[in-house]
Amino acid sequence: MANSDEFKEISSLRECVQLAESIVEESAKEYCINFSVKVRFPISLVLVSELKDVEQLAEDFQNPEKPDHLYLNHGEFITPLGVPHVIEELRNKHNGNRAIISLISQNDILKKGDDPIPSFMILQFSLEADNTLYVTTYFRALEVSKFFRINIEEIRIICNQIYSQLKKIEFVNLHVIAFRGYINPKINTLVRPKIESMRDGKILALLQDDVGQLADLLKEKLYDTTFVENNSLKYIKENINDPTVNKRINGTLTNPHFKTLVDACLDSAEQLSSIRIISSHHTDIKPISDKYLENLSLLIAEVEKCR
């Protein structure tokens, strides 16, 4: 199915996500190398959002200005000129080879370590004589159960923009290629936890006066992530060890047990950051990530006792 020249007819974009999941599952491996899925659907599917749960997030990813709550988005790489360029190319040379959106250059990759860069790298378009819009996309890696839903919605948004100017399009033939396709429903979709944008004083206020909200905010961190950010835990550590402010903090959060949990979270987070610099493979990362999330869960449980 994955390598067939035929495009599978679908009647909903949700089917595309389900098909992608089944391809990875059928590979019976940790990941599917040279993942590929090909679907054909009527242009009507791009006119209205079907995946409502990710609609706003997909719009945020397509915003030319990266929202503060995302570690990165795609619109900042596409720029406001990306889709108009494709429309103009298709209008002037409908089956040419330059109707391309490239999200990344070599300079975006060099010396970046494990800093976030797009996995969504290229989209290419052609409008063929049968009024079918061919869309081919390439991902360096693609999580197909959760993140792909966002990506499909982004592709829908772009195709809708193209259709608004080229009304003769009747069908879309979409070919999604990824060097590595995998499933991880616990993945963080590059959304920055709100607590990581808070400064020391705000964290102190939560420790002293609103531990319930502190627990809720910490729960937003309970996802596998490619970008480990823990300023919030560092602020917590500083405050619970500061005798000038910790007298107003619940004793459960200043006792030695809780301090040990904070240190364990920070230590495992550091280990996770270090392993991500040298490996991207789930089998290498999972044990350390699981340990970090376990430590964080234990810490949150202690905070919950103070509600």
Q: Beta-strand level of the residues, as a percent range?
A: 5-15%
Straight-line N-to-C gap? 52 Å
The dominant shape is elongated
CATH architecture of the largest domain: 2-Layer Sandwich
Q: Quick one: CATH superfamily of the largest domain? A: Thymidylate synthase/dCMP hydroxymethylase domain
Largest sheet: 7 strands, mixed
The CATH topology label of the largest domain is Thymidylate Synthase, Chain A
**From the alpha-carbon coordinates, what is the Rg to the nearest angstrom?**
23 Å
Q: Unreliable segments (pLDDT under 50, ≥5 consecutive)? A: none
State the total count of DSSP E strands: 7
Taken in chain order, the helices and strands follow as EHEHHHEHEEEHEHHHHH
The helicity comes to 40-55%
Structural class: alpha/beta
Question: How would you summarize the topology of this molecule?
Answer:
Layout: E1 8-9, H1 13-27, E2 32-42, H2 52-62, H3 75-78, H4 82-92, E3 100-102, H5 106-109, E4 120-127, E5 132-139, E6 142-143, H6 147-165, E7 171-182, H7 200-209, H8 211-219, H9 231-240, H10 256-278, H11 282-304
Parallel strand pairs: 1-2, 5-7, 6-7
Antiparallel strand pairs: 2-7, 3-4, 4-5
Helix pairs in contact: 1-6, 2-6, 4-6, 7-8, 7-9, 8-11, 9-10, 10-11
Features:
45% helix; alpha/beta; 307 residues; seven-stranded mixed beta sheet; elongated; 15% strand; Thymidylate Synthase, Chain A
